[in-house]
UniProtKB/TrEMBL annotation:
EC class: lyase
Record family assignment: Belongs to the ferrochelatase family.
Protein name: Ferrochelatase
GO MF terms, alphabetically ordered: ferrochelatase activity
SUPFAM superfamilies, alphabetized: Chelatase
UniProt entry keywords in alphabetical sequence: Cytoplasm, Heme biosynthesis, Iron, Lyase, Metal-binding, Porphyrin biosynthesis
Gene3D superfamilies from the UniProt entry: 3.40.50.1400
Originating gene: hemH
Length: 360
């Protein structure tokens, strides 16, 4: 395509060769580990009706009158424990993953695919990043929420943000959205390899606990598939690792508020296991693509303390897949499967293995 064909429509800064874009979306994180920075982040997050399903007239006074006065300082204190010189682990890890995927996809497909990262809450927003991709000339967009298991509170909310953005575009791109990848073979294999590598280096704990982020039980009762998808991931990992239900245990963390959330709770589980005589416990959090507050602070610090206080010796946290080659490879395969039928860009595609020549 001649460059001039695009310029008038999409603005001067686009790269007309990257017509296919991938938008990774993660939850979002405050810009600094301070109450002042955490407050607007929590206000946006906990003001999302997908996350808190109470009528607004009931929830708004509690959120603004109580929660946003107390929680920011407490959360900021937790964030301060995991903050790095580069910033929030969730943001840094997600950015590295996006870069790794862009390199990998360009190599695999022989075309300049653009991979961008957005945050559902805070910056860079879904809207800003889709508009940016569009300015760059992207006409086919694959959205990949970085949540392996679908929940209305996480993936569903990303879909809302994408849909809201499209309303404002005169000429929206062709769109696909990955709903979940909780049972994807390559993903399960990547998780298994990372767990086995941990065992090879540190030895095996007596049990492996998979701790997933919780949600209110009420949401699952109303039809959210999240609980089932978490258990399917666990079942597939059991089969792949050769562990039975007594060796690989599932629990749910990060409960907020008073209503019942998915059970068993992670904190009660690590205490129970220690009380039952388990001394070495491995914990992985396969619901998190990238390490964050909920893994680095809640699991690797808080729950480690609960475990040892209850008589356990070592709780070893097995890191998230982050930007490891295993995760870059498995997500690159997933992305390309979801792009099937989308042409490689004609002007820039280079012939590569598998096309033309003498192959059958
Ligand atoms: C109160 C309701 C919440 C629901 C429902 C919920 C679901 C949910 N969350 C994640 C992933 C993450 N959550 C993170 C932090 C976090 N979560 C909540 C509340 C709910 N989450 C709060 C209030 C916070 C902020 C921290 C705190 O104050 O405790 C994070 C980490 C972000 C970071 O900056 O590191 C992630 C990731 C999923 C996948 C999910 C539903 C399945
Ligand atoms: Fe092109
Ligand atoms: Fe959360």
């Amino acid at each position: 395509m001649p460059r001039s064909y695009y310029t008038g429509l999409t603005g001067p800064s686009h790269d007309p060769s990257a017509q296919t874009g991938v938008l990774l979306v993660n939850l979002g994180t405050p810009v600094a580990p301070t109450a002042r920075a955490v407050r607007p982040y929590l206000a946006e997050f906990l003001g999302d009706p997908r996350v808190i399903e109470y009528p607004r007239w009931l929830w708004w006074p509690i959120l603004h009158g109580v929660i946003l006065r107390l929680r920011p300082a407490r959360s900021a204190h937790a964030y301060a424990r995991i903050w790095t010189a580069e910033g929030s682990p969730l943001r840094v890890g997600s950015e590295k993953l996006a870069e790794g995927l862009q390199d990998k996809l360009r190599r695999d497909r022989g075309e300049p695919i653009r991979v961008a990262l957005a945050m559902r809450y805070g910056e860079p927003s879904v809207r800003a990043q889709i508009e940016q991709l569009q300015r760059e000339g992207v006409r086919r967009l694959l959205v990949l929420p970085l949540y392996p298991q679908y929940s209305a509170t996480s993936t569903g909310s990303v879909i809302d943000a994408v849909a809201d953005t499209l309303k404002h575009l005169r000429w929206p791109p062709e769109l696909r959205i990955v709903n979940d990848y909780h049972d994807d073979n390559d993903h399960i294999e990547a998780l298994a390899l990372s767990i086995e590598r941990g065992w090879a280096v540190h030895g095996r704990g007596e049990k492996l606990l998979l701790s997933f982020h919780g949600i209110p039980q009420r949401y699952v009762d109303a039809g959210d598939p999240y609980f089932n998808q978490c258990h399917t991931t666990a079942r597939l990992l059991r089969a792949r690792l050769g562990l039975d239900e007594s060796r690989l245990v599932v629990s749910f963390q990060s409960r907020v508020g008073r209503e019942p959330w998915l059970q068993p709770y992670t904190d009660a589980t690590v205490r129970r296991l220690a009380a039952e005589g388990i001394r070495r416990l491995d914990v992985a959090c396969p619901g998190f693509a990238v390490d964050c507050l909920e893994t680095l602070e809640e699991i690797a610090m808080q729950n480690r303390d609960f475990f040892t206080a209850a008589g356990g010796e070592t709780l070893r946290y097995i890191p998230a897949l982050n930007d490891s080659p295993e995760q870059v490879n498995s997500l690159a395969v997933l992305i390309q499967r979801h792009m099937q039928g989308w042409p490689a860009c004609a002007a820039t595609a280079t012939p590569h293995h598998g096309y033309g020549g003498k192959s059958a």
